[in-house]
Amino acid sequence: MDNNIAHILGNTNVSAENEPLTSNFKNINFQNNLIEKLNGPAILTDESLNVIHKNIYADNLIFAFQNRNPMIHGLVIRALNNKCPEVQKLSLEDDTGTRHYDLFAFPVTTGEDNKYNVLLFGRDTTTEQQLTKALVDSRQMFKDLVSCSTDFAWETDNQGRFKYVSSNGVLGFTAYELNEKKASDLIVGAGGLNPFDTLDVISDVEIWMQRSDGELACIQVSATPVIDNQSTWQGARGVCRDVTEAREREAALRRIRKSEQTLKKIVSAMRDEVDPSRVLETTAAAAFDGITANHCYIASIDPIHKSYNMTMKAEFGKLDDAEFGDALISKTYEICDDYSDELPPSYLEEVVNGYKVLIGITRHHNKINGAIYIVLDKKKRSWGKGEKSLFIGVASHLGIALEQIKNYEKLEKLSNTDELTQLFNRRAFTEKVKKRLIIQKRNKHTCALMYIDLDNFKQANDTYGHAVGDDVLVMLSDIMKQNTRTEDLCCRMGGDEFAIWLENVDAENANAQATRILENALSMREIAPNDEKPLSLSIGITLSLPDHEHSLDELMEKADNALYDVKKNGKSGILLNR
Fold first, then answer.
1. What is the helix, strand, coil percentage profile of the chain, to 5?
2. CA distances (Å), 212 to each of 156, 173, 177, 178, 268, in order?
3. Is 330 helix (H, G, I), strand (E, B) or coil?
4. pLDDT tens digit string along 26-61?
5. Got the DSSP string for 117-178?
6. Which of the residues 170, 213, 270, 485 has the least number of beta carbons within 10 Å of its own beta carbon?
7. Taking the complete model, does pTM exceed 0.70, yes or no?
8. pLDDT in tens, 373-387
9. Measured between alpha carbons, how far is residue 436 from residues 230, 269, 412, 447, 501 in Å?
């Protein structure tokens, strides 16, 4: 009988053979209380198979019972007919799947002559059966895995010599060749680890061993020590598996993933970065991440009539050789000349100024457009196969990036410059001066805005035509460039109006620069001479002081007012509006 029900029954009389349960079971309240305390499904049924009482676990059993499950009904009927307990194993379906039970049927007296009820309760054995099945499956799986993974089995003596090797041998050696051979003689490196004379149980230890042909193999070893009845160590035994190919595949996959991640960074930068220099930074960083390097250069190459013009676009890393970039350019010219009739290889290994350099000539639509250089420390001899493969991918993507950068720079120049004079246009000039005003507040420098208008330009245009008029405008733009500094900004505002932003100047220097421009502009009269209305300039200037809050519109208005006063007073002059 189940220990649970025996415990609940206590002193209740239970027959050993065919006598039904009596005593307290005649009390219906006791019966109901017992059923509710059972920790498995339990029901009480009468001779007509009507359910009298059930506990909270019995829903699944009730459903099967009321649907006339033949095994359950047969169990109850046998208990009634035989007037003795009956046992039946049963599987039932519920929302969680299949549940397994050991069902017990006990006939109990009702207190009336020859009338009995049946106590039907079950012990859930689902977990036990699942554990048993899992154990069986696990043992079978273990046998299968050992069978699949074991390349050879072995045993060594207390001198570390092979005394048994399975018939297929190992590492190109036959079992006969390995007999009496010391296992340690085949181990390469491993830091002193020798699983063939282990004193402890070890599992899946990987070591490198030498094959019969001298090549290296990665061997996975599991071993256990051999101990005799006197607790004396007698050697070891175990199994080995050659995992060289698997490790090589894993290494190859790691290289491929690394390469994919590196190239993905470059492609993302090409797609998402607004600033072209950031694309080159990302390319160089990606190259450093996957390729051994101490330094990286990136150059742009423009073809010019059977030759090339090279410009270093970026430099990353540290290299104490100021002339190294020029040496790389010279080497690249040599390479391009050597392969003048064909495209150079995907990469070349060269020595430049004593440094090992990996050179990749980039292309776009089969035309050379740039180069990338990876520079090694002098102590490193070369790059691995995986690094070279990644370098080829980086160079390939860089060719596309350099072309995009060139196109971006062309578009930016077109959008920011005046097509005729190549000076900044009004939009670009306005944006740049606004940024200079912000910097001015921080640097505390005085700056100046100069407005220039061509005097009598309409008469020159009407007299000599628009082509000569264009020559005059181009000549004036050249005069402005020649008489301003690199940090100054020159602009064609539109028509015959120009502007100049003078960085870090006082009133005296601003006047001096305006005077030089005015004097040099007199040479324009040679292009379009007119004695009555000669070409000249009217120039208005205003200062931008760091301690005053100036908006660009306010400065433009002041300079324009000064220019207007010059025009009003006879043209060809300079006026500073403070």
1. 45, 30, 30
2. 19, 6, 10, 11, 49
3. helix
4. 566 767 787 888 888 899 998 888 888 888 888 888
5. EEEEEEEE-HHHHHHHHHHHHHHHHHHHHHHHH-SEEEEE-TTSBEEEE-TT-BTTB-HHHH
6. 213
7. no
8. 888 866 666 787 778
9. 92, 29, 19, 9, 9
